[in-house]
Structures are given as C-alpha cells and as structure tokens.
Amino acid sequence: MLFNSLQFLLFFIAVTSLFFAFPHKARWALLLTASCIFYMAFVPVYILILGFTIVIDYIAGIQIEKATGKKRKQFLILSLIANIGVLAVFKYYNFFNDNLTAGLQYWGIENHVPYLKILLPIGLSFHTFQAMSYTFEVYRGNQKVERHFGIYALYVMFYPQLVAGPIERPQNILHQFHEKQEWNYERFKSGILLIFWGLFKKIVIADRLALIVDSVYNNPDNYTTPSIIIAIVFFSIQIYCDFSGYSDIAIGTARVMGFKLMENFSTPYFSKSIGEFWKRWHISLSSWFKDYLYIPLGGNKVSKLKMYRNIIIVFLVSGFWHGASWNFVIWGGLHAIFQVVGLLKKRYMPNLPKMPALVDISSVFVLVSLAWIFFRIPTFNGAIDVFKGLFSGNWQPKGVNLNEIIYCILLIIVLNISEFFMSKRNNYTVQYFYLKVLFFIIVIYCLGIFSENQFIYFQF
Amino acid sequence: MFKKIILYTVASISIFIFLLAGHPKFMSFFVNHLHASKSKYFGSDKNNFGDLYAISYLKDFKFKNESFAPDLKRQPDTTTKEIDLWVIGDSFLGNLTPAMGDSILYKTKLQYYYFPGISMGIPKKIVLNSKKKKVLLIERTERFLRIDFVKNKYAANNLKFFDIDTNKAHVADTNFLLTNEIVKNESNFLDNFKLKFKGASITNQNIETILFGYRMFTPLKEMKAGLNYQLFDRVNDLIYLSTDRKNLFFYETIEPKGMLSAYNPFKTEEIDSIVSNLNFIGDSYKKLGFDEVVFSIVPNAVTIVEPTIGIYNDVINKVQNDKNFRYQSIDIYSVFKNAPNRKSFYKNADTHWNGKGFAKWVDVLNIYLQKIADK
C-alpha cells in the first residue's frame, strides 16, 4: 500500500480511529493486524519471510538473555545468519550469480547455477536491519528482552515504518508499544500536518521533478549539457523529497497515534562537509552503521589508517545495502573517498583559509549530486553516458520545458523556506491548523502528480 | 462513549468503502449506475465523451460520443437468414446488438455478441442450429495480441465462454479449453507481480471513483489538466498527443517497449505463437460444431491515424498473411490503410473507431458473409 494512495488514506483513518476506540490491551493486536494487511497489500506471500525472521529473532533474543558466556554470542550469530541469509537469498543471490556467470565466462566456462525468479520483498533491508538491531542491543545488554511475541512482531512490522524506515532501535520504540497512548489534540494536529507536508514533498515536488529527471536519465544521448545539469540537480532534490517525504508521513502517522519515531533527515543539503551530510541524511541508517559496524571495527579509536579503512568499509557496505549492483557500491565508494579526502585535508592542510559557508555547502551539494548519478542509473555504462553528456560541451538548451524548470525551481525555494520555518513552529491554533490542512489539500490536488509513483526507497 | 461511537463509525465507513472498492460486482453495479445517472452533480461523464478524454480531462478533446446509426444506414435485409453469427469480441463491437445485426448483416442472424468479462446475461449453454450455417467471428484489438496470444495463458481464460449444450447440439467435447493444453508458456513471476500491482492500482482507482468520480468534480479535473497542458505541455501519462495535436492516443500503444505498443517489434516466434493460438482456437470451435471461424484484428487508433510516430511492427499483416494461418480474416486493416481519408475512421479522443470506421468494418464483414451464404 503506497502512502500516496487513496487506499492508504482509508486505511489510515480506519486504523487510527480503531486504535483510539480499542482498549489499550487490544491495541497491539490491532496494529499488528493492520501492519500485516499493509504489508500484504504488496505481495502477500512475502509475509512468510518476515514471519521467519521474527520468530528466529524473538527466540534468539530470549536465548541470548538466558545464556551466558560463549553461548550468548552463538545465539547472536544464529540470528545474524538468519537475517543476513534472508537478505543474501532474496536480495543478493542473483547479483552474485550474475558475477559468477561473468567470471566463469572469462574462463570460457558456462554457469549452471540457476537464477531465482523472485522479486525483492519490499522494504526487506529496512525491517531486517531493524530486527538485527534488536538482537544486537539485547546482546549488548542495552535492551531487555521482549517476551510478548505480538509486541516483538509489532516492533519489526509497525506499519508506518515497515517498508522504508526510519530504522528504529528497540530502546526507542519497544517500550512505547507497552505504554498507553492517550488521545492528544496537539500531537494529532502536528502529526497530520507532517503527513501533509510529506505528501506535498512527494506528490508535488518529487514526482514533478521526476518527470524531467526520468526523461533525461532514460535517454541522456538526447539531451545537452544544461539539461543534464538540471536533471542531476533535480534528482538530488527529488530523492530528498521522495525519501524524507516518506519519513515525514511515517513519523506523522505514528505521531497521530502517540508514537514517537526517530527523525531521519535534518536539512542535509545545508551540510558543510560530507561527514556532516551523513549525520543529516538517512540518520537512522547512518547511525545504525555507526553503532553496529563502524564502532565494532574500532571506529576512530584506532590508528588514522585503520580509521580510514573503517570509513571505507562502512560506506561500501552502505552502498551494497542500498542495492545489489556495482553502481551502488561505486556510489558508496565515492562517499568514502569524499569523506576520507575531507579528513586528510583537515589533517594535512589545517592552515587552509576557511571558506564561506555557502562555498562549503555548494561543494558538498555538487559532490553528493554527482555521486547520485551512480545511484540513479542501474548500469555503469549508463552512468558513464550521463557523464559524457554532462561534459559534451553542447550548451544549447534542448528537450526541457522552460516553464516547468522555472516552476520546479520555485518549488525548491518553497521547500527550503518552509523547512526552515517549520522547525521553528510547533504550536498550531485550531484555525491555523484547519486552514493549513485545507491549503494542503487544494495545493496537493491542483499541483500534484498522481501517477501511482512508488517511493524510491521502497526498492531497498 | 459518544467518542467511541464516532470512532467506530468513521472506521466502519472507511473499511466499508475500502471493501466495496475491492469488490468487482459492486463496482460494476456502482459504475453502471453512475454512468446512467442524469444527476447534475452525482452522475458521471465518463461514457458521454471519449475514453481518452475521461483520462486526460483536456477540455479541447471533450467530444460527445455520437450515435453510429447515421453511418449504418443500409437497405433493410429481408432475405432469409441463412447464417447464424456468433461473435466474441471486445469494446470495438460494443455497438453491435442483435437487433442492429438483423438490419445490417447480409442474410445473417446475429445470435450473440459476447465481450469476455463484461457481458452479462449470456446463457451458460448455447445451442447450435444444424440447419443454419454457423459462423463464429472472433474479434480482438491489435493491442491485445501480445498479451492474449503470446502470453497465452490469458487466451485460455478469456476465450472459454461458449459452452455448447451437448444434448441439443451435435458436438462432443465441450470443455476443450479447460482440458486442453492451450497454455504453453507459464507466465513469469514478473508479470504476475505487475498484475498484482495493477490489482492494487485498480482498487485505488475504484476508491477514487467512489469518492471523486462525480460530475461535480469534472471542472476541477479539467482545470488541473488545462494548467498542466498550457503551462508545461504535459498531459496525463497514459495519454499521447498526436503530432498535429488533434488526436489523443493511448500511451501504451505508442511506448516502444510496451506490451500493447504498435512500435514494439514482434519476434518470429511471437508471431508463430499468435498464429498457432488462433489456429488452435479456430480448430477447437470447428470441432464443436461451427462451420466457419473467422478472425478480425482491429487496428489500434495510432496504427491508422499516425503510424509514423515510430517504426510500425506490422503485426496485423504478419499474422493475417502468415503461411501457417489457416483461417480467414475480416481484413479491416488493409481497408483503412489504403483509404484516402484514413484519419477519419477513429474518434479524436478515444481508443475506438467512430461510426464511419465501424460501418466500414460492417461492409467488409458483409462481403465475407455474402461469400459464405452464397457458397
């Protein structure tokens, strides 16, 4: 079920109304049922995969708490194998097989390993990581084991963040499922406005920019340098509005019911360094990697050389997490290089004059935008075609509608101004609230693109 | 308590609409009622104008659906009806009623027109009259050839409709389409997935129809479409505007890689698959007792009106003239293609032909029927 669908509107109204009508004791069952329905709206049978990891991690959690010594680690490893195994089969099997085929072909050998005719279950990487963070935290002793199977299942499956995050930590969300959430009008208003803001970002901005971005990226040969620059810049904004819009809707949906999900974005394109960018972009994922990969590798408490190695590992794995394709690995690798080069610059050229903030922000935006090319294009050659077009030197504007570009730029300005002011305002009067809701409904209807576009991050 | 009643009521209404939107029978009833309604605010304009207008909401293409009758004026046929014609077709023949058939078809009694999945009230069993020449006409639009007869699982589903009464008719096996191996290729997982997504998308469209499918919303929809068209030169992504901006086409019939596209080339084995499926269907119905089975492939609008948008895949010619194709065709494609005024056979904002196009098809059909009757 897509957030930007009427199905979801009815689903949300029904679930939220029932949530507050039901007694506290029955709410977990309502939310779990709703989450199952939400997930099964995509491919029903894939719920079995979720069921499998839920059962394994639930048992592993209990066993980890019970066990002592080496056995604790064994149960953790068992849980990790189950989770990573599911990811390996459903997300990476065909990728590895492809590479095996290419490798064997080089030696003139035919690959007889069969391909799996499967599609990636939606949101697999998200809920697998969320499940893994539970066993990690139980193992580390930061989280008490959850003995209520239904509530544990809800922790993995909570529908607002099930398919595209934020990737929650058990310490933040599990206890909330046990607490009684009371109706709160202020929270309701702010949740609803956040949902509308997310829809605005997705339907009005991201999907409008996608019209231009898709036509350029699908046929870069047909476009000249200015159009390709526009597409590159617009894709940066598109993916931000698409993903942060999803997060806003998820956070807003949970907030209306009284649940507090973690923030996932914090105006990342205003970052002055790549390091800062990753503290403000997809925060729930970057903090996951920091907690469960970077720090266990030694983090920055090791030699500088090892620290750089750790950074590179984390970004490469992060790229691979996003998708089973070398382009995602290249994308992660580029961010690793940007980050390491930034640190080296700081270390070896500490006396360089400080640039104005705008220069730093622009530099980060340009680097991130160039890296997004590998993220957006599925093949390496395709990405190279975009770069060729970018540096073709043909400055004749071609193939894009000037009115639409001006309109998109206006939308981007509105986006930035609104996000700046939004963070300053928390209290809404009733009149202001209803006026704003009405405004959103009119604007989203009149300016929105309704073509059932999926959220980009669903594929991960 | 009062608060709980309100919450349960709101939830119930939402769930009720949700369930209704997923219920094909209800939606069929609802949509029919909506289309028939004359209400100024709660009726629907969908059937009054072209189907592509109803998607695009471009005011410039808001043409009333005209009656076909003026184009179908024929001398009343008072001769004995020597032929029983049974038709399995799609929306292109939606205007073909038994009453109309009597007056426009040569020595022919139209027994049934059947549109799989749409027609209501078709008798489960039909009886073939051994004293008449029994002709079965199977009509399909060009754009569905790939889906129906290459991905041929659908052919089996779509074509198992004439269940002939074996007690009264002189035929034996009636369940051939259920028992026979028409399905050669398993449709792949990706297709199934896409279909499932389409299913979800249909439910979403149904909810939209229930909530906003009323005439009172039309001005808003037209305003939005006009704004996008005038300012950004954009139309609904299911629509393609002809080069001269006088016709709307269904985008999937243009999209080079689309399943329905006139510009997506057919491989030789795909043409073979279509031909062998058509042969199989024809043979099967002949075994059931039909004297003649004839096929008619109706071209997509773009194939006739603006075939030069891309490189046309020429599927109709390839199938009709395939050396292995054993059945006759009502070859309307050649007639349209060679006509000096080829653009005039299709509506400007619709995937279908107009009265003139339909009348031309009737003429070609009558030539065929005449041959059969006079045999």
Description of the molecule:
The complex is a heterodimer of chains A (460) and B (375). In chain A, helix 6 (149-157) crosses helix 7 (170-178) and helix 11 crosses helix 12. Chain A has 17 helices and no strands. The model of chain A has no long low-confidence stretch (mean pLDDT 88). In chain A, 70% of the residues lie in helices and 0% in strands. Chain A is globular. Chain A has 460 residues and is mainly alpha-helical. With 375 residues, chain B is of the alpha/beta class. Chain B has helices spanning 2-21, 24-36, 53-56, 98-104, 145-150, 153-159, 176-179, 189-212, 218-232, 268-288, 301-305, 315-320, 332-338, 355-373; strands at 83-88, 108-114, 125-126, 133-141, 163-164, 239-241, 248-250, 292-298, 328-329. In chain B, helix 4 (98-104) links the parallel strand 1 (83-88) and strand 2. Chain B starts with a helix and ends with a helix. Chain B has 14 helices and nine strands. Classes of the chains: A mainly alpha (460), B alpha/beta (375).
Question: Could you provide a short overview of the structure?
Answer:
Chain A is mainly α and 460 residues long. Chain A is 70% helix and 0% strand.
List the helices and strands and how they pair.
The complex is a heterodimer of chains A (460) and B (375).
Chain A: H1 6-21, H2 24-40, H3 47-66, H4 70-106, H5 124-140, H6 149-157, H7 170-178, H8 185-218, H9 225-256, H10 274-280, H11 283-294, H12 304-322, H13 326-348, H14 357-376, H15 380-390, H16 402-422, H17 430-447
Chain B: H1 2-21, H2 24-36, H3 53-56, E1 83-88, H4 98-104, E2 108-114, E3 125-126, E4 133-141, H5 145-150, H6 153-159, E5 163-164, H7 176-179, H8 189-212, H9 218-232, E6 239-241, E7 248-250, H10 268-288, E8 292-298, H11 301-305, H12 315-320, E9 328-329, H13 332-338, H14 355-373
Helix pairs in contact in B: 1-8
Summarize the helix and strand pattern of chain B as letters.
HHHEHEEEHHEHHHEEHEHHEHH
User: Any idea what the radius of gyration of chain A is?
Assistant: 23 Å
Shape of chain A, please?
A: globular
Please describe the biggest sheet of chain A, giving its number of strands, its sense, and whether it closes into a barrel: none
Which structural category do the helix and sheet elements of chain A fall into? mainly alpha
Parts with pLDDT < 50 across at least 5 consecutive residues of chain B: 153-161, 163-198
Largest sheet of chain B: 5 strands, parallel
Largest interface: A-B, 28 and 32 residues
Q: State the shape of chain B.
A: globular
Pick out the low-confidence regions of chain A.
none
Query: Which range does the strand content of chain A fall in?
Result: under 5%
Strand composition percent of chain B: 5-15%
Order of helices and strands of chain A: HHHHHHHHHHHHHHHHH
Fraction of residues in H or I helices of chain A: over 70%
Tally of DSSP helical segments of chain A = 17
Characterize the quaternary organization of these chains: heterodimer
Write down the overall mean pLDDT of chain A: 88
Strand order of the largest sheet of chain B: 2-1-4-8-9
The span between the termini of chain A is: 16 Å
